[in-house]
Design brief:
The chain is an alpha+beta fold. It has three domains: 33 residues, no CATH class; 140 residues, Alpha-Beta Complex (Penicillin-binding protein 2a (Domain 2)); 318 residues, DD-peptidase/beta-lactamase superfamily (Beta-lactamase, 3-Layer(aba) Sandwich). It is built from 17 helices and 16 strands. Strands 1, 2, 3, 4 and 7 form a five-stranded mixed β-sheet that branches. Helix 9 runs antiparallel to helix 17. The termini are far apart.
């Protein structure tokens, strides 16, 4: 380093020559040197301060970033390595035919305790009992102060409950993240979805398994990772399901019925667009099954699938369809209806006196038991059984529910002629409303067998032929006439060409015989009858219509109005436009200004 001398010789000599003081030059050079040293030290200090400041900013920035990461992540308990198989908690969603969620997963937490880590076991027990009223404070105190090292408290808790437990502040109360099954629509389609619960459980996860309904039937598929998380698409339409459940609930209350069911089915594909059973339940809080008493009293009981009933006069169309197909009768054939019809010690009577005879069409329109019994005699028991078996009335429905096998129809072990007669008008064989819906779909769709399904179908699967197309067309006109001028006139919904058949069957007593004042009222309908697309079956358990002077229990007064309201509400949702029906003769046209 080159340093400037404090007393440069040239300047000193020059100053002495001029009579100046040479010390001034030295002091000036010394000042300049000190100022240079000061500026250099100042610059070095400033650089150090900037670097130190940047260091503090970086350090506090890293701390802040880590705090943000911790605040935005879920808390997790420390995990120790283990060699057991992991619990796969992810479960596929279930959607309706439009992709709307019916069942999905929700991340929640479980609550457990490690008593050896607890600071105030007794106080924690008392506070937990306030948060969770279903937990017993005395039992928790015993568990917390005993020899147990681990105590399950709640298998799933809400975020609000989790926060309240956090506020207790006891380190021995711990949480484990897990998934639970969520049904966002509550009780809608509850009997179809069924429900799910926990199988194998660990601290940090739990196995979600199906317990009933679709969840149980497709449990393996829903849990299979090979599906890539693809949802299970059902044939149901959520809007239709909700609408029909609302109407059915109102109808059940209006008719003072014990229970009710309704099925809306595509007559060509067998897809079930809606299937309701009341009373129902919320699968998010699935109730415990009944351990005694009548199973149908439980809200878990699916009346549409498990309810096996004598379905009354709705069976008459099967006898007539078979007789038409065999060429035994035609729509104008006159059939004896003089009553009572005597067979041994049995007497078969009609609800009204219809005179000595009726045409086959009017046997259906007026619902004559005697006329139908005479037609069944022409068919014979062997052919009758074969035809009903072909319709699927003797086997459990193949619908994709674990409960379906429990809805196997009941039929007599022997089939004497009296059984042939009574079965023709719906007594002696018991089947579910879903059996009836499938059979009616086969009657009106051109005559091919239909299998009910809850899975969305891409295209119809042709079934075996049951009746000819011409017979199916005749049956459609008969069913339309029942609504126009027969027992189901309350079922006529203008613009939708509704056709159908009523059925009122006395309920059997557990001890034998039948109740005099308890019935199963059923309305099996199809629409539009010029080109049938849908079948609707509505069934009410023990209905009573009380608007008149005397109680009325027949299906025409109870099930039919409910079915009509369902069609009135559901048809527009199905995309059906009301059509004006042609009138044979129109003499006067009234115009209102």
């Amino acid at each position: 380093m080159i340093r400037t001398p404090l007393r440069p010789l040239a300047r000193i000599l020059s100053a002495r020559a001029k009579g100046e003081n040479p010390d001034v030059i030295e002091r000036e050079n010394l000042r300049v040197r000190h100022e240079a040293m000061r500026d250099k030290a100042k610059a070095r200090a400033e650089i150090r301060l900037v670097l130190l400041g940047l260091g503090f900013v970086a350090a506090f920035g890293m701390v802040g970033f880590e705090m943000g990461v911790l605040a935005s992540t879920e808390p997790a308990e420390p995990k120790t390595p283990y060699t057991g198989a992991p619990i796969v908690a992810e479960r596929a969603d279930i959607t309706d035919r439009q992709g709307r969620l019916l069942a999905t997963n929700l991340v929640t937490h479980s609550l457990y305790a490690q008593p050896q880590l607890m600071v105030d076991p007794a106080g924690a027990a008392e506070q937990l009992a306030l948060i969770f009223p279903d937990l017993d404070a005395a039992r928790m105190k015993k568990d917390f102060t005993g020899s147990r090292k681990f105590v399950w408290l709640k298998k799933k808790i809400s975020p609000e409950q989790m926060q309240l437990v956090h506020e207790i502040g006891d380190p021995g109360l711990l949480f484990g993240p897990r998934e639970m099954r969520l049904y966002p629509n509550g009780a809608v389609a509850s009997h179809i979805l069924g429900g799910a619960s926990f199988g194998r459980e660990g601290v940090s996860s739990a196995e979600v398994v199906g317990t009933a309904g679709i969840e149980k039937t497709f449990d393996t598929w829903l849990r299979d990772p090979a599906n890539g998380g693809a949802p299970l698409a059902l044939s149901l339409d959520l809007t239709l399901q909700s609408t029909i459940e609302d109407v059915l609930d109102g109808g059940m209350k209006l008719m003072h019925a014990k229970g009710a069911s309704a099925i809306l089915m595509d007559v060509h594909t067998g897809e079930i667009l809606s299937m309701a059973s009341l009373p129902d339940f919320d699968p998010n809080t699935r109730p415990a099954p009944l351990v005694k008493g009548d199973p149908s009293d439980s809200p878990l009981f699916n009346r549409a699938v498990q309810g096996v009933y004598e379905l009354g006069s709705t069976f008459k169309i099967f006898a007539v369809a078979q007789a038409l197909d065999l060429g035994l009768v035609n729509p104008e054939t006159m059939v004896e209806t003089k009553g009572p019809m005597v067979w041994g010690k049995f007497r078969i009577r009609d609800f009204h006196n219809y005179g000595p005879e009726l045409s086959v069409t009017d046997v259906i329109v007026k619902s004559s038991n005697i006329g139908t019994a005479h037609i069944a005699q022409m068919i014979g028991g062997t052919r009758q059984q074969a035809f009903l078996d072909q319709l699927g009335m003797f086997a459990a429905t193949p619908v994709e529910l674990v409960e379906a096998p429990t809805g196997k129809p009941l039929k007599p072990a022997k089939w004497p002629e009296i059984t042939t007669l009574t079965v023709s008008y719906g007594h002696g064989v018991a089947a579910s409303p879903l059996h009836l819906a499938s059979a009616y779909a086969s009657m009106v769709n051109g005559g091919t067998r239909v299998s009910p399904t809850l899975l969305k179908q891409d295209k119809p699967v042709p079934g075996a032929r049951v009746i000819s197309e011409s017979t199916s067309a005749t049956i459609r006109s008969m069913l339309r006439a029942v609504v126009q001028r027969g027992t189901a006139t309350f079922g006529d919904v203008p613009g939708y060409e509704v056709g159908g058949k009523t059925g009122t069957a006395d309920k059997p007593k557990p001890s034998g015989g039948y109740y005099k004042d308890k019935v199963i009222a059923t309305f099996a309908a199809a629409f539009p009858m010029s080109d049938p697309k849908y079948v609707l079956v509505v069934s009410l358990d023990e209905p009573v219509e009380t608007s008149g002077t005397e109680p009325r229990r027949t299906a025409g007064w109870t099930a039919v109005p409910v079915g009509a309201e369902i069609i009135r509400r559901a048809a527009p949702l199905l995309g059906l436009r009301p059509q004006l029906e042609s009138v044979a003769e129109a003499e006067v046209i009234r115009v209102s200004n």
